[in-house]
Amino acid sequence: MVKNKIKHEKKELPLIGWREYLTLPILNIDKIKVKIDTGARTSVIHALHIHTYKEKSLEMVKFEVHPIQRETQTTIHCVAPLLEYRHVTNSGGHTQLRPVIVTPIQLGDYQWNIELTLTNRDVMGFRMLLGRQAIKKRFLIDCTKSFLH
Fold first, then answer.
1. What pLDDT digit, counting tens, does each position of 28-68 carry?
2. Of residues 84, 89, 88, 78, the one with CA closest to residue 99
3. Which of 42, 75, 132, 137 is deepest in the core (most CB within 10 A)?
């Protein structure tokens, strides 16, 4: 029997669980529970009342976030520069044109920028998914653990 070998780089990658809490400091979201989703290429956040507008020569997007799972009382108003619109195929196989922003996130002691698509995730279990592009070459996932950071 041939075993698969993984080429290790010189640095060790930290472990994260299949779900974690993180912060989106520029969006003023102090704590949001995210599912680590290697099946999703891009990260996504539950966003409502999404509107784009021009500010000077920059295209901006404003939206609202309910950061707490199964709770709609807490609302955070967010504004960010619009990176682009992107066609994203959701887990149901439907393609949707979504606005994309770039924002820093913080997970424990680690902070970096990610691309984040905006869409209504009311019927989904998690308010945010952290996709594989956001974690690539940064972390290893222990699918048996949660909240390691």
1. 999 999 999 998 899 999 999 999 999 989 999 999 999 98
2. 84
3. 42
- Position 28, amino acid: N
- Going from the C-alpha of 79 to that of each of 53, 85, 93, 110, the distances in angstroms are 10, 16, 29, 23
Give how far the C-alpha of residue 61 lies from the chain's centroid of Cα atoms, to the nearest Å: 17
- The structural architecture, per CATH, of the domain 15-142 is Beta Barrel (2.40)
pLDDT digits 0-9 by tens, 68-106: 888 888 999 999 999 999 998 877 788 889 999 999 999
> 3-state DSSP helix/strand/coil percent for the chain, to nearest 5?
5, 55, 40
CA 20 to chain centre: 11
